[in-house]
DNA sequence: ACGGCTTCGTGTCATTCATACACTGACGCT
DNA sequence: AGCGTCAGTGTATGAATGACACGAAGCCGT
């Protein structure tokens, strides 16, 4: 490929989160685990590069992706690393590759130092944005129950919430649309399904 | 030196804000005005590069600086631009260079398109962070009056505030320390001076 | 068919927080 | 002495938040 060109100067790293029982992130296992990372190609945007990192490492596509922070590379790594975080519901992520798995962000100690910082800052960003941006919905399917939504809030915000107060808040925010359907899930009362309101349908006709 | 090396791949751009009568940003005037920008040097951190851009363009040092966003460069510019915003009180900025001046962020239409986006996003970020981060103080001297502080909040938040409610809020936040001194400023009652409470260093890293 | 288990879904009251609002105080100037 | 100007203070009302307990609906096992 290239001869004595120095290490690639720009790369993108992605911390992909999902919620199964708890919040987890995608990790490439090895002696030292790593986040999916790719060096930027000629003519490629940063976001495309980040998506490619996910695709090449784990075959994952079409996730919510946002820029997190840009780091000066560490000593022997790439010069500059643009970190992204990605969110997706776990049932859309079927990973059947060796060496790719999920880990608890709280015990990410076997990650390279810089990747650990990325994961940690992404968690903080998530908790911060939870209150004013519709990120919780990125962990859920198109239609979801209020119970599921509350669980997401509790896991990301790291605190239990009162069910009735939570529902009141969600209704007041008028982000939700009630559907006509219910979800039967076990030997108990079915739950109503909601979906996220389409942000501004604007005017029709 | 090097033969067909492409344009420098990484640069830092800085939108430096201050408050005089209104919020203003520093601009390098020309046919097309530009923000201070520098290409990264070997072994230089991104932040150092951003500070150098300010120093070289306008002789400005020691300002509050935070990363804003990383952009894919536009067609003919550098490949990747890491944008920063900087804040400083106007009396610490004596600019005596031709071609360097202040402009109103709301009417930045003669800026290059990408720089315009940077200025606009920085303004939004400022307004957003105003409520939960001590950025307002970056526009003031070490010691300041509550009236000055309120003016900063009003300008960045773009809305007038009630004096008594504002003061109550500031006191409740317990970010302020009352000093023993007053500032005599004109033909009226002097105002008490306050300073920002030293925040606990907590953890570094 | 009945009772038991599990999750879904709902309302009220108390407290806290946010908002609106008007006058006196200190100083300098004339 | 009076005026202009900004500094500084408290209260009353409505809004948002937090705490809290029980019936409803479905399934299962007997």
Provide structural commentary.
The structure is a homodimer of 205-residue chains. Chain A has 205 residues and is of the alpha+beta class. Chain A is 26% helix and 28% strand. In chain A, strands 1, 2, 3, 4, 5 and 6 form a six-stranded mixed sheet that branches. Chain A has a three-stranded antiparallel sheet with strand order 7-9-8. Chain A has four helices and nine strands; from the N terminus they run βββαβββαβααββ. The termini of chain A are far apart. Chain A is elongated, with a radius of gyration of 19 Å. At the A-B interface, strand 4 of A face strand 4 of B. Chain A binds a DNA duplex (30 and 30 nucleotides) through helix 4.
List keywords for this structure.
homodimer; 205 residues; alpha+beta; Arc Repressor Mutant, subunit A; 2 domains; six-stranded mixed β-sheet; 4 helices; disordered N terminus; DNA-binding
Strand content of chain A: 25-35%
Most extensive contact: A-B, 12 and 13 residues
Helix run count of chain A: 4
Structural class of chain A: alpha+beta
Number of domains of chain A: 2
Separation of the first and last Cα atoms of chain A: 56 Å
